[in-house]
Amino acid sequence: MKTAIIGGGAAGFFLAVNLKEMNPEMEVTIFERSKRVLAKVEVSGGERCNCTNSFAQVSDLSQVYPRGHRLMKRLFNVFDYEDAYRWFEGHGVPLVTQDDECVFPQAQDSHAIINCFLSLARRYHINICTGRKIQSLNELSDYDYIAVTTGGSPKGEGLRWLTDLGHEIETPVPSLFTFSITDAKLHALQGLVVDDAVAYIPSTKFRAEGPLLITHWGMSGPAILKLSSYAARYLAERQYQAPLGVSWLQRPEADIQTALHEMSVRQPQKQLTTYNPFGLQQRLWGYLLEKALGHRAMLRWSELNKKDVNRLVNTLINDNYHIAGRAAFKDEFVTCGGVSLKAVNPSTLESRYVPRLYFAGEVLDIDGITGGFNFQAAWTTAYTIAEAIAKNQ
Fold first, then answer.
1. What whole-number distance in Å separates Cα of residue 177 and Cα of residue 326?
2. Chain centroid to CA 310: how far?
3. What is the mean pLDDT of the segment spanning 246-275?
4. Residue 40, CB half-sphere, CA atoms under 13 Å: how many?
5. SS in 3 state form for the chain?
6. Distance between CA atoms of residues 7 and 162, nearest Å
7. pLDDT tens digits, residue range 372-393?
8. Above 90 in pLDDT, residue 215?
9. Cβ-based neighbour number of residue 234 at 10 Å
10. Does residue 228 carry a pLDDT above 60?
11. How many CB atoms are located within 10 Å of the residue 118 CB?
């Protein structure tokens, strides 16, 4: 029996290795259109490969999979994040879990994952054909099973042949990107990180928490990347032009007003710019003061009036910006959309239209936020297919 895997990325190699371990007699060939395999794995996670997550902070999969969470919940009964952790450690890749629950190779090097896959491919005599673009199933007519693991297709062109076979395609759009914001004074704060911010799109339910990074083009960091994932389609429909709200403090408004009043009592003769009661970086505090109060930012604490307090509180918890475009997040290349989940059997990921044709990874309409969740989707869907094919023998 022979299986062809179209796509030499994370899902493709994970599928190939597991299929050979489940059925050693199976002949497996990976077809990769580029000259290199596993290129995305190499650069992911700052070249450290955030290969999964502990899921310790996840109470509902919809928090981390804006698209496909119901299917992922089902497939986790087959292979979940704990299985993935054990799999890599059992195959010679020790892992470590960071304080933010992201899981990396202990070596802090993506090549630990890559070398594992390539070593196993050699051991199991998996055929790897690079520079080979498959454009039709007719090219693979002598294979018994075919799995498509080509990853995302931002422009949708790589999915047309699947449309021709009857598969519904959810329009692909970018996910996981940073926001371009036209504000020279904000740009001057580049490199500054607020550890516990909230980013949201006003008048919508799109909201994300976490560290926020100010860059020379706008905003990045986990809070922004998560928000871009949640609102991927919403922002695409608006050509990446939308309002953005930021809460720099996650504290009740009444608590903030009390802290400002106490400051005016304790330090009445000090300038506002000199002291702040919230632990914000001094550069950010000065920027927010000027944004809220203009020339009155140079006042002393005793000179702060009620209107000043209201403006300052509003800026601290309801700051307003305008998203003027998107910028790529260099460590991730994730696409929202792909083969509709209606087009596959939810238990095996086999096509409903073409027997013995399967889909795994980002080519499906499954995508996660940053933090190792997209790789976990690759491992889970690939393992599901390997098991389905092996059981079909």
1. 6
2. 36
3. 94
4. 23
5. CEEEEECCCHHHHHHHHHHHHHCCCCEEEEEECCCCCCHHHHHHHHHCCCCEECCCCCCCHHHCCCECHHHHHHHCCCCCHHHHHHHHHHCCCCEEECCCCEEEECCCCCHHHHHHHHHHHHHCCCEEEECCCCCCHHHHCCCCEEEECCCCCCCCHHHHHHHHCCCCEEEEEEECEEEECCCHHHHCCCCCEEEEEEEECCCCCCEEEEEEEECCCEEECHHHHHHHHHCHHHHHHCCCCEEEEEECCCCCHHHHHHHHHHHHHHCCCCECCCCCCCCCCHHHHHHHHHHHHHHHHHCEHHHCCHHHHHHHHHHHHCEEEEECCEEECCCCCEEEEEECHHHECCCCCEECCCCCEEECHHHECCECCCCCHHHHHHHHHHHHHHHHHHHCC
6. 14
7. 999 999 999 999 999 999 998 7
8. yes
9. 14
10. yes
11. 16
- Give the strands of the sheet with 2-6, arranged side by side: 127-130, 27-32, 2-6, 145-148, 357-359
pLDDT of residue 328: 66
Dist. CA 214–CA 191, nearest whole Å? 6
pLDDT 10s digits, 16-45: 999 999 999 999 999 999 999 999 999 999
Contact (CB, 8 A) for 300 and 268: yes
Amino acid at position 198, single letter: V
Q: Tell me: the pLDDT tens digits for 123-164? A: 999 999 999 999 899 999 999 999 999 988 767 677 889 999
Token pair recorded at residue 72: 């992922």
- Write down the mean pLDDT value for the chain: 95
